[in-house]
Each structure stands twice: as C-alpha cells, then as structure tokens.
Structure to design on (75 residues):
C-alpha cells in the first residue's frame, strides 16, 4: 500500500494533541505520545519529502502551539 503513495506529491499537515492527557497518560503500559509519534513517522516515511515533492508540517498543541515544517517557509 505505502509503495503507491511514495510517487504522490502532497502537502500534509499533522495536528497533534500534546496536552498532558495525551503526553502523560499510558494505556495498558503503552506511552500514548510515542504511539502518536510512531504513527506520524510511519506516514511520513511513505513519501518522498522535498520542496518539489511532498511537503509536511506538524502542529502540536497543548499549553502552547508549535509548528514544525520539513521544508523552508517560502512556499
């Protein structure tokens, strides 16, 4: 499945809840925050990332909001 999306060009934004209820909460011994990060990484790894390819931004929110981009801000 993921081999098909590698050839796609897209702009992808992940909006991630980084509040204490997610970051400091474990369900059955599993760290929820790490599960979220692993999921996002698995999606990103399926694409070719670059200015002419797929561009990715990650916005996490909790007490404050942080925006992380994989490419420059000019596009």
């Amino acid at each position: 499945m993921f081999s098909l999306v590698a050839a796609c060009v897209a702009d992808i934004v992940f909006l991630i809840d980084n509040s204490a209820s997610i970051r400091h909460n474990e369900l059955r011994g599993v760290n929820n925050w790490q599960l979220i990060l692993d999921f996002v990484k698995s999606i990103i790894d399926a694409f070719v990332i670059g200015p002419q390819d797929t561009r990715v931004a990650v916005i996490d929110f909790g007490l404050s909001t942080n925006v992380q981009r994989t490419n420059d801000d000019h596009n």
Observations:
- The helical segments are 2-5, 20-23, 32-44.
